[in-house]
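Standup notes
- HV: blocked on the assembly model, inputs below
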Amino acid sequence: MSAPAKEGRVPRWLVRYASPVAVLAAWELSVRLGLVDPFLLPALSSVLLRAAEEIATGDVLFHAWLTIYRAMAGFLAATALGVTIGVLTARNRYCRWFFEPLVSVGFPMPKIAFMAIFILWFGIGDASKIVMVTLTCIFPIISATYLGCSQVDRYLVWSARNMGTSERRVLWKVVLPASLPQILNGLQIAFPSALIVTVVTEMISSGGGLGGYMILAARFALSEKVFVGVVVIAVVGYALLTVFGHVRRHILAWHAESQMAI
Amino acid sequence: MSKIEFAGVRKVFQGDTPNPVVAIDNIDLTVRQDEFVSIVGPSGCGKSTLLYLLGGFLDLSGGEIRVDGRAVTEPGPDRGIVFQHFALFPWKTVLGNVEYGLAEQGMGKAERREIAQGYIDMVKLGGFEDTFPNRLSGGMQQRVALARTLACDPDILLMDEPFGALDAQTRHILQEELLEIWSRRKKTVLFVTHDVREAVILAERCVVVTARPGRVKTEIDTSSGKADGAAIEKKAEEIWDVLREELVRT
């Protein structure tokens, strides 16, 4: 939203966040005016009050921490594995022969279909959820790394070779830094799905976390508590993505477009 | 002894097409120590390929290239190259780029910083040490590339249309700077260009390459009359006349 604030009286943040503010205001008003049943859609104000209570007891924070931990663990594992496989696929034709068909089949597949199998293999605790997150995130990371590493300008490689860099070291000195923008794009695309999949797996199998928190609240017909879960997930997601964006801009200070529109 | 020898050099690009492209066929050329040789020819005649072969970036399809009597098998810092589009490392600052080769050869931090600073000052980029390449103009980027290559102190300087992507004024200034640098620290220079005036102004000898497959068509002595504008135009005209026959063929 790039509408310039023509009048000095309108605060900048209000212009920037006009659309979410409008939606939240409509939410509050529709309940206050009695347009919807407050059980099905509790007013924003009562959700926030409830959220404050839940935060005070530490209950929702504990579940939020569980969700963040699982999402990050799965995401970091996917990053380590995905970048490694992507590099190998780009640099070695046997690896390409092995991984390319697997990635083409695996990428579009709904990975959540494996959840039942993972529960069977890894139990209903953290392990099955983290593996699920890793499996979901790894494909965009492999694909972005592969693309980045296979499109490195040959003149950059030649420059390094010319100045005494060995064929092996070219990977570290040129290929990886040159494909960093694409790799980070892949991570940025994979990142939201880490959160989504964590919450979904928490809803499917027990063990707490925000997904479990919401499902349990729904079973007890505590609609405000369900909405607290939604609000906390929104905040957590936004906060993590903002941190990610800052890290990315810091790493890519040298890059022309240091911010990807998403 | 001659510094560089091309003996029956041939390069065929296989590619994905059924018809392989013969880029260079049977090139013989000898370059003396500290000589400045320009190579001109129609575009696509393989004159850049000739540099890439000497640089060791591409494999020969036939013949041999010798430097100081030894066959070229792989890239090395004794043959520094400057590319048309600079090929600077965008993730490194100006200083980081110029230091790169020295660091790769295991030089300590303080020493390589001092040497790099010397070359940055030489190409008149003092004050831009911590700037990333994408903040620099084309002319400045090519200066960085030149400093980066010179910092490795190569015996041989390979220049692949280095000023081709620059505007006329910047090109003129960089030509003068290159001549000044070359006169101060002698190097054997192979300079590929499509600009015959540039060839006359810079080089002592101009090698004209034929249309593909590239062969040496003729060699023209360009060592005299550098200060005389009329003599430069006359020499350029002479090269043009030879080149024109080849341009018609492509």
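- HV (later): unblocked. The two ends of chain B are 37 Å apart (CA to CA). DSSP finds seven helices and ten strands in chain B.
- Next: hand off to the docking folks.
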